[in-house]
């Protein structure tokens, strides 16, 4: 199940037909580095699993947090996911191929025609069969990576996981081998006739920003930790 | 396939087992009104379909734009999706059950333990079997709704769809009958011992904001249309 640690970051993505970007004016990015950059920025991903059997089988897509580890033990690196042992989507996942998609929304493309309207975005699609992480050290490391994915540096400031917490948590590891990255950026790609007609076209940049941290009531006016302040500052900047 | 127009907005969501919210401290919202409010705010959704057959079958999750119509002809209202006739995920969809998930990210929950870290969000999960929209009037209306979903009011300012554009586009209609809505808000739900230990806990509100519209080069310094200015103003406010 595991593979050498050393899939180079320059290894091409999309080695299989099912993760090949097929169409559109959107740029397919072939470098593994772009995949990790994108995954590193994601506060949420969407996990797609098939639940049920036979005619009852259907996809379920749920938002969750993931964390990529380029040095992880799976071929191409490892994408970690976690959840409650009671979550049927995660419990069903290890026997089946799953899909994890990350989408960072960068803008609205207001074209001169309905047809050419679009969004600017960066997205990654990862397809593979996950393994359940059973090694305790890898489990603890994965859970720390997931906390740090959302608040960088925070895991090191927290008490260790308890046995009870670990027992209640499923950690999955998805190989990052089969993945595709797509990026759309810039203004509309309009038809010449619509441009000549003088209709307005352009794009609206979008970004996610943070407002000031809201301490829990018990924290009063005590100091906000560095990790939280750094995160708020980063998400509040001009870009 | 179609049903009366009049599923009341007070009809409960989650009429089936597969869209019942099963677990967590997250609030399951039962009102149909909440579903439409949430869908109305979404600039992106994630469409999950199963592609392939038998042992090769696997889920694919792709970002796209959807538009809900509470007065649509499907039971519970209609969620419209569109895409290229060349997109295998959309072409595969009508014979199969699909899942559309909308997630609005509202904040980061920084708890006193890794275990209680979370996100604040509002999400909707819709499961059903879509129909391909073939009626030309419904197709045009659906495509207008999709444009207006992203830039309210814009569809009315654009030229009509051409035959070629319509021929290149698949429009799917998904009944909004089977849906669930989940909302998490507020600060962390920490263990008493961790609160007493004095660790900082709180949450960081997040929101999507727009920067000034960037006109296409051919538009020069010409006036930015009202629909675009209104949208930028709305996404640039304090909330």
From TrEMBL, chains A, B:
Residues 1-18 have a biased composition (Low complexity). Residues 1-21 are annotated as: Disordered. This is Nitroimidazol reductase NimA-like FMN-containing flavoprotein (Pyridoxamine 5'-phosphate oxidase superfamily). It holds the Pfam family Pyridox_ox_2.
């Amino acid at each position: 199940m595991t593979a050498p640690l050393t899939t180079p970051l320059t290894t091409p993505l999309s080695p299989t037909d099912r993760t090949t970007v097929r169409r559109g004016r959107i740029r397919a990015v072939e470098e593994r580095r772009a995949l990790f950059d994108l995954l590193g920025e994601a506060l949420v991903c969407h996990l797609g699993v098939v639940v049920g059997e036979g005619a009852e089988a259907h996809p379920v897509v749920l938002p969750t947090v993931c964390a990529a580890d380029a040095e992880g033990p799976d071929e191409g690196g490892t994408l970690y996911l976690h959840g409650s042992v009671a979550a049927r989507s995660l419990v069903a996942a290890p026997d089946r191929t799953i899909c994890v998609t990350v989408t960072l929304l960068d803008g609205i493309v207001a074209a001169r025609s309905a047809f050419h309207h679009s969004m600017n975005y960066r997205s990654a699609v990862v397809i593979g069969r996950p393994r359940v992480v059973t090694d305790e050290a890898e489990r603890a490391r994965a859970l720390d990576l997931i906390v740090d994915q959302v608040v960088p540096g925070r895991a090191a400031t927290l008490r260790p996981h308890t046995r009870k917490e670990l027992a209640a948590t499923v950690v999955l590891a998805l190989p990052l081998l089969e993945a595709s990255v797509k990026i759309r950026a810039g203004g509309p790609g309009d038809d010449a006739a619509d441009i000549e007609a003088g209709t307005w076209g352009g794009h609206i940049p979008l970004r996610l920003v943070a407002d000031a941290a809201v301490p829990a009531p018990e924290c009063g006016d005590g100091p906000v930790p560095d990790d939280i302040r750094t995160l708020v500052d980063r998400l509040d900047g001009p870009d």
